[in-house]
Amino acid sequence: MRSTSTVALFLFVVVLTAAAAIAVWPSEPGRYLPGDFWPSGRGVKVGGWERETMRLGLDLRGGSYLVLEADPPDNYEGDLGEALDVAREVLERRVNEFGVSEAEVQSASGNRLTVQVPGMSLTDAQNLIGKTAQLEFRVITDANEVVPATGVVNGQTLTMSGQYLKSNTYPSRISTTYAVNFETTSTGAKLMEQITTRALQYAENDPRRLLLIYLDDQEISSAVVQSVISDQGQITGQPSFTASRNLSKQLNAGALPIPLKTVQSSEVSATLGEDSVRDSVHAGEIGLLAVALFMILYYRLPGLLAALALGVYTSLTLAVFKLWPVTLTLSGIAAFVLSVGMAVDANILIFERMKEELRRGRTLNSAIDIGFRRAWTSIRDSNVSTFITCLILYWFGDQFGAALVKGFALTLAIGVGVSMFSAITVTRTFLKMVVGTPLARNHWLFNAEETKSAGSGRAAAKAQEG
User: Fold this and answer.
1) Which of 122-126, 229-233, 258-262, 269-273 has the lowest mean pLDDT?
2) Which stretches of 175-240 are DSSP H helices?
3) Element (H, E) at 47
4) Rg of the Cα trace of the chain?
């Protein structure tokens, strides 16, 4: 007799699998499945959050990959880590403004940044990110136009920019709000004094009294001038400590821009990427069918249930990849296929223990419980070892900027985690659903009848000899 909890868990697995399958169903199924009668997938959309397709890496989608390294001058005295954080934000803003979707800019070891720009040629990518970030102060004119804030020093008209700030800017708290404190160089002090003196001629609610700060032609701060500023100043009214800290980082980096040099670059054509996706999906489909066929032929009914559990595993894993989202690469797909093998390996351990118990004459329900209990330690140790390996691979990939290694490690870890759920929970639930049915009494369906009969024959022969 099946328990209520088993039925409830079975229904939960069915609903979860259906939801995952709908979420990951491709928008162009005809590219990956035989026939042209398949409905098109629409992705997932909840409010303003949306996932239409899988996030693909450059080797599957095509695009450019660059590794940039900080190349500060010999007399640089600022915080290189903060400067790189701001440089990463600047690059992200640039590629997003260019209209590039799903571009990735990440920090790496050795004062480096990795940039992945899908769908863009290497030349365009280098031109886009190769510009030096410019931080400058601006004001609003009588004609309501935003123009650079300027002053006259030694007979020359100069624009107040980041090069006239010292790299010792820091955030602070004033009552319930936050502020950013900064200092200027000698030239910057003269410029700021002229700029703020002109601004104080206007009323406090007049836009001409505003002092604007722009980074890469994007406004990052707007403040009303309260007094004349020369060698020291304070930008008040920041909404949070995080906002004031971020502005402080941007001002520090703007005080002395960090040059970035390209130490590695590569480009993958979009056509090659599209072919790789299709071939990878086809290879995965063939692999899943081959594994399912082997399990059914060798383990019969448990093998069929394991094949169904494998379908559950595939849907859930791909759903995690899409909704997270995980950037899939060729190495990531290889890790996913490897995790399929590990999921099957767990089922094999369980089924072999079950067969032993059935041959000893136990009921199916008892054989399931004992089989899972005896196989659990082996499954646990195997998967923990794999998790540790994934952690080591991810760490090394992060240290050396090897995105392919990191992708392989992350994808394998997710696949192994879901495979444990599939083997321990899903397969067990499917087997429990068979308990109490006529199928449970047919040992041939569990590949346990032959050995049991042979054992009975030997016992009868010994009785006759006696």
Assistant:
1) 269-273
2) 186-199
3) none
4) 32
Tokens of 438: 């006529």
From CA 414, how far away is CA 432, in angstroms rounded? 26
The separation between CA 419 and the C-alpha centre of its own chain, rounded to angstroms, equals 19
pLDDT digits (tens, 9 = 90+) for 351-382: 888 888 888 888 888 988 898 888 889 888 98
Mean pLDDT on 98-110:
74
Give me the residues paired with residue 153 across strands. 156
Contact between 145 and 152 (Cβ < 8 Å): no
Structural domains in the chain, CATH included, are: 4-52+269-457 (1.20.1640.10), 63-264 (3.30.70.3400)
User: How many CB atoms neighbour CB 277 within 10 A?
Assistant: 20
Locate tokens 């800019």: which residue? 105
DSSP 8-class letter at 328: B
**Nearest Cα residue to 373 out of 428, 326, 335:** 428
Q: Are strands 177-183 and 170-174 parallel, antiparallel or unpaired?
A: antiparallel
Q: Which one-letter amino acid corresponds to residue 340?
A: V
Return the closest-CA partner of residue 394 out of 405, 404, 384, 380: 405
What are the tokens at 341? 């093998």
d(CA 44, CA 56): 17
Q: Among 6-10, 145-149, 402-406, whose mean pLDDT is lowest?
A: 402-406
Query: Are 195 and 211 within 8 A, CB to CB?
Result: yes
Contact 65, 114 (CB under 8 A): yes
